[in-house]
From TrEMBL:
It comes from the Eukaryota. The gene is Ttc37. GO terms for cellular component: Ski complex. SUPFAM superfamilies: TPR-like. TPR repeats lie at residues 40-73, 562-595, 596-629. Keywords: Repeat, TPR repeat. InterPro entries: Ski3/TTC37 (IPR039226), TPR-like_helical_dom_sf (IPR011990), TPR_rpt (IPR019734). This is TTC37 protein. SMART domains: TPR (SM00028).
Amino acid sequence: MSSKEVKAALKSAREAIRNKEYKEALKHCKAVLKHEKNNYNAWVFIGVAAAELEQPDQAKGAYRKAIDLEPNQFLAWQGLANLYEKSNQADVKADLADVYQKLLELYESGDKQKWCNVCNKLVDLYQQEKKYLEVAETWQKLIQKKQEEGVEKAELHQLWKKIIQLLKDNTQDQDNKAQHLLLSAFEFALDSADAIPGEDHQNLSKDFIQCLSKRPYETARLEKACNDMMALYPTVTYPLEVLCLHFVQSGTLSEDALHCFLRLSEMDASSGPGIIGLGIKCLQEKKYKEAVKSLTEGLQKTKQCPAAWYYLAEAQMKIHKHRDAVLSCDQALEALGTPEGPNLQWKNHILQLKAGALIKIGGADAAEEAIKALEQIVDASSDPVVLAIRGQAYLNKGLVDQALKISQELLLSHPDLAESHALDGFINYSQKNYEQAEKSFLNAIERKAETAEYHQYLGLTYWFMSDETKKDKGKALTQFLMAAKLDSYLGSVFRYLGNYYRDIAKDKSRARGCYKKAFELDETDEESGTAAVDLSVELGDMDAALSILNEVTEKARTGTAKWAWLHRGLYYLRTRQPLKAVTDLQAALRADPKDANCWESLGEAYLDKGSYSAALKSFRKASELNPALVYSVYSAAAVKQILGKYENAIAVYQQILETTEEYLPALKG
């Protein structure tokens, strides 16, 4: 076949393809290939015809053969792209990307429109495959091409916005280069905005700041973006809110941070980040109750701020609301999610604070939970303070030997650390080794004199120490007073001061003041509440006693605050107010249904009220719970006598006299 005949056959093949006579086209191409087996166009036409006849493997082979013959001719590459685009097979995606890359190379210096079309297709393909770095790099090439063409600023702006749209929700966990390209796209888009300031520019600024706020390593960029937006849009609170939360989360509580908190509060007093910032300021100024109030209010509006939850827990620890602090730490950990980078350090701080709060709560269960928290701290074994907390947890669990082992190791490795000596003091105090406990607490105080707890425990050590200190509690008093001075929220030390003034100094008035202070600080401290009420009664100040009891019973949940209900019920019983007495004594029994004395008092209240059947049941219950309560047995007989059950009453009186011969009420009965 001559070259003229080859050209004619190829022309016929092209005409056949145009007329959709694909089998005819194949015949012409095969005829050409018999004489010219490396004819590029023949292989391309075979590829086209085979693809239309749904013979993809043959089509692919033909295109590949043509490409091998002429790798820089675009026809075969174009055909192969069309073939892959129609395929439903997942494995062709990577091959299609390679084909698009080659077409971009071939169109680079030629057809610009085709180059842009292929570029768009490649971006879509990479996006489907979630290859976000490749998306960014390809789109950047398109923008560079447009810049070379000298397109209008407005078109470039839209192109940068397109790359932002493609990447902003998908680069959080991706390659750093993709993230860098996204941030650069924001900056170029902001610079190329049509109107500055303007609505589009403002929204872009907001999106840029939101994007930066999710990236802990972009602090300098974030601060600049917030400051730039604040300068252009001084009435918009968003950049200030983000900046405030950034300062909170970074732990940077500088003058700039405080200025931001105050400025935001002035602009919007209800802003969550602003209120949180003011709470942290109160914490710095040691206004702990105000800090708790502000941080709690701020976190109701802005919950996803782990650092703010941590500061709230810290403030709660300062006022000894340990259970609240544990809950705040749990919220902080939940808000933190799966931490990395700077957030990993936050996780360690939160877990350590949580463990410390659990130690203060006391008990084996809380200690076990504290140990679990400490186990999650990275490099916990190398931190002596964390080890000291672990030692206290073991002590609270009753594992004295394990606590002692940690204590000995810390005293050897960190003899200058106050916590090392304090742990040794706690262990010796728990074992009543008071002389050694005294030395340890004195060593701890020498290294950290401002810790109220050390002074309190040294005071307790002196209280129980020896015959000499038992007679003279002056040394204990000195330490208790120092602890109270250092920490005015430490309720337990005011209870110990109350014990001193009541039992040693015999100063009931001052003792009552201390007990009242202790109870105000810790409403769960029943001992202090009871003592404050009892002393008020002894001092003839029934109004003060009732004030305390009323406050407790108003807040009490069902089945709690037995002591308060019982005290007030007995008061009403003494003052012949049986209806009120019955109500309060019933409430006390809901808290402790096995209190025989309380049942006996309830029987008396019913008796005063004239409810004889109810009185009889109450006295019977009291004597069932405690058969030694002769008065309850007698009262039951007396009620039976009132009800006319004389034989039953006589039998009970005789029963009492068999065990207690001279029990006058029974004889009289």
